[in-house]
Amino acid sequence: MAMIGKVLRMHHRGKKSVREIVRATSLSRNTVRKYLRTPVAEPPKYRRKAATTKLAPFVETVKTALLADARRPRKERRTAKALLQQISEAGYEGGYTQLTDFIRVWRAQQGGVAVGKAFVPLAFELGEAFQFDWSDEALVIGGIYRKLQVAHMKLCASRAFWLVAYPSQGHEMLFDAHTRSFAALGGVARRGIYDNMRTAVDKVHKGKGRTSTRASR
Questions:
Q1: pLDDT digits (tens, 9 = 90+) for 49-94
Q2: Is 123 a member of any domain?
Q3: Of the candidates 81, 85, 87, which has an alpha carbon nearest to the alpha carbon of residue 57?
C-alpha cells in the first residue's frame, strides 16, 4: 500500500510520467500502470458543527433590545452593561466581551439600514412666542476686517425674523435688539425662547432649570 501511495503521489502531485516513475522505483511498466488505475481515495470531509455559545439562547432578546433602542434618542438607549444585566437576570452566564462582540457585528450588519427617527412637531399660535439668539459674523468696513455680534429674533408662528448687528453682546445691546426687533415685527409675543446665551443665563441646571442674569430679570 505504501508503494501504491508513492506511485500515485509521484504521478498526480509530481506530474511524473510512467517512464520516470519506473526509473525512480525500479517497478515494471505494467505494475506502475496497474497502480495508476487504482481509484484515488478522496480525503474524508468533516463537517464542523457550529459552536454553541452561552449567548446563543439570548440572541433574539438582544436583537429585539437593539432594534428598540435604535428608534430611541441616543441618550435613552441601553448600554452594553445594561443589556448584560438584563440577560444575566434571565440566566445568561457568559462574559461581557462575548456580548459586546455580538453587538459590534450586529451593528455593522445593520449599517446600511437607516432607522427612522420620530420627531414631535412644534406648533405655535400667532403672537405666542419668539426665539432670540446671537451669532458671530465677520464684515469688512472701509477695508478693515471687523467681527460683529448679530442678534436674531424670529417669531415662532409666522417665522418672520429681524437681525441687528452690534460690536458686542452687552446688556445694552441685548435690550436694544429686543426693542428694535419688536418695533420692526409689529409687537411683542407672550413669551421668549432663549438658547442659554451668557447675557441672559448665569447658570444652567439639570433639566430645564436656569438661573437668569440679574439684568435680564
A1: 656 788 999 999 998 888 888 777 777 778 888 889 989 988 999 8
A2: no
A3: 87
The 10s digit of each residue's pLDDT in 154-212 is 999 898 999 999 998 888 999 999 999 999 999 999 998 887 666 665 555 555 555 55
Backbone CA torsion sign across 159, 165, 166, 167:
positive
Residue 188 CB partners (closer than 8 Å, separation 6+) = 182
Q: Which domain does 7 fall in, by range?
A: 2-36
Contact 23, 7 (CB under 8 A): no
Number of domains in the chain: 3
140 lies in the same domain as 68: no
* Domain shared by 17 and 74, yes or no: no
pTM: 0.40
Q: Are residues 72 and 101 in the same domain?
A: yes
For the chain, the farthest-separated pair of C-alpha atoms sits apart, in whole angstroms, at 116
Alpha helix (H) residue ranges in the chain? 2-12, 18-25, 29-36, 59-70, 80-89, 96-109, 171-185
126-142: b (≥16 Cβ within 10 Å) or e: eeebbbbebeeeeeeee
Strand partners, 136: 149
Please check whether residue 42 lies inside any domain of the structure: no
The dihedrals phi and psi of 110, each to the nearest 5 degrees, come to: -90, 5
| Domain presence at residue 169 | yes
